[in-house]
Amino acid sequence: MVCGCSALLPLPNPRPTISTSCWIPRQPMPVAWAFVQKTSAKIPLETVKLWADTFGGDLYNTLTKYSGSLLLQKKYKDVESSLKIEEVDGLELVRKFSEDMENMLRRKVEAVQNLVEAAEEADLNHEFNESLVFDYYNSVLINERDEKGNFVELGAEFLLESNAHFSNLPVNTSISSVQLPTNVYNKDPDILNGVYMSEALNAVFVENFQRDPTLTWQYFGSATGFFRIYPGIKWTPDENGVITFDCRNRGWYIQAATSPKDIVILVDVSGSMKGLRMTIAKHTITTILDTLGENDFVNIIAYNDYVHYIEPCFKGILVQADRDNREHFKLLVEELMVKGVGVVDQALREAFQILKQFQEAKQGSLCNQAVMLISDGAVEDYEPVFEKYNWPDCKVRVFTYLIGREVSFADRMKWIACNNKGYYTQISTLADTQENVMEYLHVLSRPMVINHDHDIIWTEAYMDSKLLSSQAQSLMLLTTVAMPVFSKKNETRSHGILLGVVGSDVALRELMKLAPRYKYREGKKLKPKPNYNSVDLSEVEWEDQAESLRTAMINRETGTLSMDVKVPMDKGKRVLFLTNDYFFTDISDTPFSLGVVLSRGHGEYILLGNTSVEEGLHDLLHPDLALASDWIYCITDIDPDHRKLSQLEAVIRFLTREDADLECECCHLCDCFVTPPHQGEEDLLWGEAEQVVDMAFLGTRAGLLRSSLFVGSEKVSDRKFLTPEDEASVFTLDSFPLWYRQASEHPAGSFVFNLRWAEGPESTGEPTVVTASTAVAVTVDKKTAIAAAVGVQMKLEFLQRKFWAATRQVGQVGNSPCFPGCRPSDLDCFVIDNNGFILISKRSHEVPLGIVVNGRSASKVWGSLRTHHSLRLIFRVTMYDYQAMCKPSSHHHSAAQPLVSPISAFLTATRWLLQELVLFLLEWSVWGSWYDRGAEAHKQKKQDQLQPCDTEYPVFVYQPAIREANGIIECGPCQKVFVVQQIPNSNLLLLVTDPTCDCSIFPPVLQEATEVKYILQSSGMCARMRSQKLRRRPDSCHAFHPEENAQDCGGASDTSASLPLLLLPLCVWGLLPHLLR
């Protein structure tokens, strides 16, 4: 069927040029119309195609003119004889990177070994002095003055200067400073002697840094609690005036001080543990959990009349003590309630059985095994349990923690520890907990200390949010190399005294610099976050369902593997479908493996040019040129004279032979020569560009970036673009710019459009800027490589004008009164990109321009298309993010708590308070006050923090093979007609729909990520938590030594309550009757 007054239009050329004058076709042909009988809607298919072709043709001509893409293509063609394209040998590349990283990491190990030797020698020559008086630079007190203007004690003047090598923090590179937690007395004799002894490390710190300027933080963490850090730095307490950082709780300290361990924690939850005792017990468990790391395995069993696992899913097993499991245990510990009578022998049997089963099955740590018994006493007969499971070899150590001030059961608790190669402590207050828990680490370290085995440990990657947390430190992934420091004195040999641990941080970005980005393409990225936990490879390359890549790298294999992957881009709003080749090998003398990813296609090839130094230097100093600031072209870290040079400055000095000592790889010289600024053309375009584009830009694989302004800098629509503030638009250490990546994965010569939001006080919150970029490909000897990507930044308004002009232009050619146009009264027209985001629409009141607001689409029209199941133009891709951060959900003790009235609850609480007040105050010590203040602040801060979680989100992708389509959507009482047409030479589509049919029954399509909720009781989630992935264990284990003194097994705590707090309960008790009248 055709329109009543038929309209005739010619079939358009692929890229027509239509004048505004009247034009009569030589051979009229009828136009095809999309028509639905239930409605009067009619959409002329040929007209829609003509609109798309006209708009695409005009746009292509404009973009090639201002971006210079065709001109650049010609320049590469002119020098084709001097170009060659090489296929990247992935295995050779990964081996070279591995060797460079091995050499770098070896230097870090040598620095730490120097510190170990110096510390042990200093201790050997130091005699303990109980009355030692010694002033040192206390990191908290330095540069602090009293009310009279004098420096406070331990707070002398300490010169601090900002240093770019140390994240621009103010430091002193000539000396170290000493930090102590709030609960450690800074003039305790043990502290003073340890600090005095470790002064010998200052000279070694400086020598190490001079020998290897790539070193960052070096430090010594003492077993007594002080932390000597180089370079010296000012340490600021938190908002409560508390320093909670304790080096002995850090992963590097724990892993260096002890071998891997399997731990079963038994906690008494009988009725006698009520009140403060249970609070102390919970804090003790939490402190123990904080001393565990990735190489350890743990479970927690609560006991009274019967034994129950605090996490039923973990019944009968041990789980890896990674951050997720530790935090999960902490939440469950807070829910523990007391009742009944404590029967410890059943709990001990359960613990020994778990440890025995895991040892026999070759699971867990395969090293140390221990039971932690936390109770206020033990009364029943427990000897038969030890006789059956642990004697005479005592392969499982038993550590006992007597909770409270009651000493009736002290002898029994100590007997248990001493007869099972463990350690006994009594914990009377919250402030006692830290020091008493740390004793077990000293016991576990004895075999290693006696044997003088200086194992070198490398931690997993971590985000050091606690170290210098009060400083404005950028998020940075680190690994730490650490070694234990022992006492070599003969008289203490059998005691196996651990003096502490020395370590040095290695920023992973320093390793990345050894693998220049221009030699390969990036894979998926890790996302640094404040409470980052090590990310498993399976959470990044999650398409590797069989975990073949993960298994090969854990087993230190060298090889290659191919995989089809989905790579998220543009903050997860878009996705690339790639076939990646993975090349991997191990890094010798470290626990690490290295992998390099090459994308099939252009990622496999690299363009090389034979350009002279003179030709390359010709435009290197031009102000429009920049090199990737984080990429390494020249080695500038070794020589102190080179450290302040930018990479561009270093390249120029190298090329001009000003500095013969510089080592550089100038892969970008050909890019400099082929891509000079076309100054004459810029001048010609400047005037007419005022209403067209703001700037043109160019980037090459070698990290060279050029930009040319066509308007004054004050008129640039998006001033952050191509600046370090906008990381997505520039070359960074771990990624290419977004516009470069999109263009390189799109057909060369075809432009990719992206909406951008201008920021600033005058910003409207709507997109105002569009970038368009395209790849320039070069083919030599039947091999094709991407030489560069070019593009322009333009105002969205220009793009809109261009489109509406094209539709009006075609409408004038139709010359018919019934010819429908892109007016809301006739048709709804949308210009969208290949991911469904709207760039142009007349219905701004319904569909905001640039629908991508916070990553979501609110388009009812586009939403109805994407939810129409019979449509095969667009398909939905579900993406997963296993490194996401979510707000913590509210946690309840029970889902079935009884309802109580407020009055009843108040009376119950009051009655309990009166009963417990005297006991509470008698047991409490003044030392606990600092903990309470800090702990409450920590809880509040923890509630405000985001937590790691898994999320899923949808991404929509247009099928590029389908150039045009039309159809009908059922929208309740009516049917909506639509036509989709590709816009040539772009990633854009023209969508035309019937405005008379309301499709609001379809909900908006949101692209927001939703948290994947796991039901703990479900078999799937439980299996996920219980699963133990293949992992590489540490190479050494030090569980026992025949010379260790097992009778050094602890004693009672000597902490005493303060006199005011002992008297306070009597006063309160006397006042209570008056207060309650």
TrEMBL record:
<dbReference type="Pfam" id="PF13768">
    <property type="entry name" value="VWA_3"/>
</dbReference>
<dbReference type="GO" id="GO:0046872">
    <property type="term" value="F:metal ion binding"/>
</dbReference>
<keyword id="KW-0472">Membrane</keyword>
<dbReference type="InterPro" id="IPR051173">
    <property type="entry name" value="Ca_channel_alpha-2/delta"/>
</dbReference>
<dbReference type="InterPro" id="IPR013680">
    <property type="entry name" value="VDCC_a2/dsu"/>
</dbReference>
<keyword id="KW-0851">Voltage-gated channel</keyword>
<dbReference type="Pfam" id="PF08399">
    <property type="entry name" value="VWA_N"/>
</dbReference>
<keyword id="KW-0812">Transmembrane</keyword>
<keyword id="KW-1015">Disulfide bond</keyword>
<keyword id="KW-0325">Glycoprotein</keyword>
<dbReference type="GO" id="GO:0005245">
    <property type="term" value="F:voltage-gated calcium channel activity"/>
</dbReference>
<keyword id="KW-1133">Transmembrane helix</keyword>
<comment type="similarity">
    <text>Belongs to the calcium channel subunit alpha-2/delta family.</text>
</comment>
<protein>
    <submittedName>
        <fullName>Calcium voltage-gated channel auxiliary subunit alpha2delta 4</fullName>
    </submittedName>
</protein>
<keyword id="KW-0407">Ion channel</keyword>
<keyword id="KW-0106">Calcium</keyword>
<dbReference type="InterPro" id="IPR002035">
    <property type="entry name" value="VWF_A"/>
</dbReference>
<keyword id="KW-0813">Transport</keyword>
<keyword id="KW-0479">Metal-binding</keyword>
<keyword id="KW-0406">Ion transport</keyword>
<keyword id="KW-0732">Signal</keyword>
<dbReference type="InterPro" id="IPR013608">
    <property type="entry name" value="VWA_N"/>
</dbReference>
<keyword id="KW-0107">Calcium channel</keyword>
<feature type="domain" description="VWFA">
    <location>
        <begin position="262"/>
        <end position="444"/>
    </location>
</feature>
<keyword id="KW-0109">Calcium transport</keyword>
<dbReference type="Pfam" id="PF08473">
    <property type="entry name" value="VGCC_alpha2"/>
</dbReference>
<dbReference type="GO" id="GO:0005891">
    <property type="term" value="C:voltage-gated calcium channel complex"/>
</dbReference>
<dbReference type="InterPro" id="IPR036465">
    <property type="entry name" value="vWFA_dom_sf"/>
</dbReference>
